[in-house]
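In response to the reviewer comment on reproducibility (Comment 2.3), we provide here a single inverse folding case reported in full, input and output, so that an independent group could reproduce the run without further information from us. The structure tokens appear first.
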């Protein structure tokens, strides 16, 4: 029964005992490296696994060293980064204050104070050290009104339509004291 799969080498009781030094006739024991085709494959797999593991450990060590170097580098430059961030925030805050001052200065002089924001350079109106130069802001708004008079606010206080003859009027003459005086005035005129 040479064709019987149960009597094939490695399928019987001899092949089930891994790692034993057997006395079988030409059977390969799976636990022994270096013996037979399966043993060579296992030895190559173990060697490949060790090589991959060593490479992974080396990459991990390199990554840890790089992370430590970057931490030291960041710690060394962190102070200058904070100073730059503070300066940027200070400039933004100063620009906001200048825009608010410009709106306030343009409120009575321009029809729309937003025109001053659109037409004037805000960065030139800030003084040294982030202080706002109120005189420069007022001068800039005055110069804008001179250059573009159509942006100026109405100075007369009258409505856009002017006087249309409606509403109460001031009397040219004082009101008569009695109704009889009123009639005399009406017929005398």
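Designed residues, in position order:
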């Amino acid at each position: 029964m040479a064709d019987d799969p149960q009597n094939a080498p490695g399928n019987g009781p001899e092949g089930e005992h891994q790692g034993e030094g057997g006395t079988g006739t030409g059977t390969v024991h799976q636990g022994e490296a270096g013996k037979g085709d399966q043993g060579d494959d296992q030895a190559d797999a173990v060697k490949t696994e060790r090589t991959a593991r060593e490479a992974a450990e080396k990459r991990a060590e390199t990554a840890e060293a790089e992370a430590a170097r970057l931490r030291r580098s960041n710690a060394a430059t962190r102070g200058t980064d904070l100073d730059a961030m503070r300066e940027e925030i200070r400039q933004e805050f100063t620009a906001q204050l200048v825009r608010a001052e410009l709106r306030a200065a343009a409120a009575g002089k321009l029809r729309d104070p937003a025109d001053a924001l659109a037409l004037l350079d805000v960065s030139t109106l800030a003084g040294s050290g982030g202080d706002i130069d109120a005189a420069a802001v007022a001068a800039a708004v005055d110069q804008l009104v001179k250059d573009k008079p159509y942006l100026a606010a109405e100075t007369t206080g009258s409505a856009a339509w002017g006087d249309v003859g409606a509403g109460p009027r001031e009397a040219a003459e004082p009101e008569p004291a009695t109704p009889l005086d009123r009639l005399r005035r009406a017929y005398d005129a």
